[in-house]
Amino acid sequence: MRRGWVLGGLAAAVATAAVAYEASPWPRVWLLRFFAGDGSDPVSATAPHIQPGLEQRLDLRYDGSRPECLLDVYQHEGTRPLPALIWVHGGGFVTGAKEPLRPYLSVVASHGFTTVNLDYTPAPEALHPDQVHQLGRAVQYVVDHAAELDIDPDQLVLGGDSAGAHIVAQAVLASLDREYAAGAGITEFLDPARIVGVALASGPFDPAAAMAVRGPFRWYLRTVLWAYSGSRSFAKDPEFAYSSITPHVHADFPPAFLTSGPRDPLAVQSHALAARLREVGGDVDEVVLEETSRSGHVFDFDLGSSDARLALGRLVAFLRRVTTTPHRHGASDAW
Hints:
The protein is built from 12 helices and 8 strands. It has 335 residues and is of the alpha/beta class. The chain has 2 domains: 1-36; 45-334, 3-Layer(aba) Sandwich (Rossmann fold), CATH 3.40.50.1820. Strands 1-2-4-3-5-6-7-8 form an 8-stranded mixed sheet, sandwiched between helices. The chain is globular, with a radius of gyration of 21 Å.
């Protein structure tokens, strides 16, 4: 009898877990957060390239409504005010943090830029378009505090990796195209006149197309899009069509720098966005690595890699082209 009770209890627990797994994105998100990371260590490989004289302002609160809404500012000694690269980390909308990017963005700052590294509220704690709006509030914070931060508020480049690249691209596009913004449900906007460029690494620029893939990556996409949208039936939501950036860009999209690795399952989406921008007359600088390269999704931050060093050099050249920063001999200039 006791054994029957035990087996019955186990069966009930399994059934309850199965129902919860299908009724909410939370069990899947917990799995993703538990197994987050690919085993690489970009911090230790990149930290040795940080130059002396770095100034850091850490964990500045840009939005008092959420505890996660903090940003860092990194600068080197030199002529001020400086153009700023404002970066949004990735993590499939549900994981990630700004801290692992501190070494990389500190190295970027060595070339004569201010770099801003921000956190936002992950999904499903917050749902789209909250993260897009939080980026807008971070940018507004930088503009409002430009004098004390020694930033030129009229020379801002927005950058992001993976999910962060999507947040950046959608925020910029919505600010340029209010009809698109209405369809996407976005109601807070950037000032496009202040955005002189975007840097986008391995972004999911066409989630609807990505859902056509099979295997574990499809499960991953379904999980994060369910969490981000708040709807298990997100694909039937009219707003979901507006999650695809590529079909909606036009010629007034700011100059764009794109990277992806040959082993990145989203590389085809970076290539498609670059092709579309060229088609509409946009300004595009895309890093395309040799097919023999082993670099994959968001390879950029591990400066122990020759591909990442190449991409950084190209990023710095792009930033120097779209801004008027005084030349400062940075880490990549010695490579």
